[in-house]
Amino acid sequence: MKRAFLAGFIALAAILTGCVAMRPPAPSSHAAEAAHQTLARTVAFPKLFQQPDDGSWLDIQRYDVFRGVRKAGFTAVRIFADFDHAPRQPGSKEPELNDTWLTRLERVARQADRSGLAVVLAARTEADLSTDAAQDRLVADWSQLAWRLRTASSRIYFELLENPAGDLTDAAWSRLAEELRLNIRLSNPTRTIIVGPAHRYDPAHLPFLDLPPDPNLLFAFAYHEPVAFTRQGDPAIRGSDAWLGTRWTGTGEEMTRIETDLDRAARWARQNGHKLVCFSFISSARAEPTSRMQWTYFVARALEERDIAWCYGSFAGDAGVFDRDWRIWRQPLLDTLLNK
């Protein structure tokens, strides 16, 4: 009720004052612009910490993976704080995050930073964020994590939520994002925060992010077009097996579609003085290999031409740039990404 009352009060105030248009957030600060540069070529570690007993961080320490990522030519890594699977502190009045889990996450982030990489810590949850309880839990979890990292390197950035989805409207997500931002600012007043639009980071919804001025914000979106190609055979999408065999050959029509989408996002950023990051782009491992390389190369170069930093969606998954079993780079994909 408290959250609903507050939202209603804000909406009423906006109507009475005539301020119903989207507020233009403040242009990026020099610190945010510097952060944008460090995120130029990022790679994601989507499985890290997905389970409470995930031991993959031990492999990272043992084999000094982050130094290898930096040496290969990447500038940053994206690590997920999976709040759904994070263990909770036993006996605490509130279901606080387990201290051991927080220590491990902090250690990995600091190790990546010491290896010369910028770090994005992205919140992940599948909870129904249309409910007050789920929103309160996310705010509390972020407050705890932010406090833990308040003295960490300024090259560790906070991403409020990976791909906001479910029943969250643009307005509801803007309100929640603002609450998260304010709580993080209590312990991290100048840290770069990354936020993307509702509807799973759909770039078409960037103009509907309604946030007050904060110069230390970067804005993110995801790009998976054409979906029939990039998501073919994806078990998370019903009917995607019907797309198997879809190719991307770089026809004029195919390239124009991508350029049009990215031009629209870049225009919004330029008009509002923002910096953009594409979190993330990747094509299905079940797609035809030559098409994968062509699509990956074209999207990466198109993003760079528009001053949009990018994050490839997987380090070591099926479609990842690194073969974890053999512990070698998938060289053709690596060269395609980094334009070698």
Short structural summary:
The chain has 340 residues and is of the alpha/beta class.
**How is the main sheet built?**
8 strands, parallel, barrel
Percentage of residues in helical conformation: 40-55%
Query: What's the quaternary structure here?
Result: single chain
Number of strands: 10
- Unreliable runs, pLDDT <50, ≥5 residues? 4-21
Annotated CATH homologous superfamily:
Glycosidases
Find the CATH topology.
TIM Barrel
Broad structural category: alpha/beta
CATH uppermost class: Alpha Beta
Average pLDDT reading = 89
SS strand fraction: 5-15%
Overall tally of structural domains: 1
Give the second-level CATH assignment, the architecture.
Alpha-Beta Barrel
- Cα distance spanning the termini: 55 Å
Q: What global shape is seen?
A: globular
Q: How large, in whole angstroms, is the Cα Rg?
A: 20 Å
Sequence of strands across the biggest β-sheet: 1-2-3-4-5-6-7-8
Continuous helix count:
12
Order of helices and strands: HHEHHEHEHEHEHEHHEHEEEH
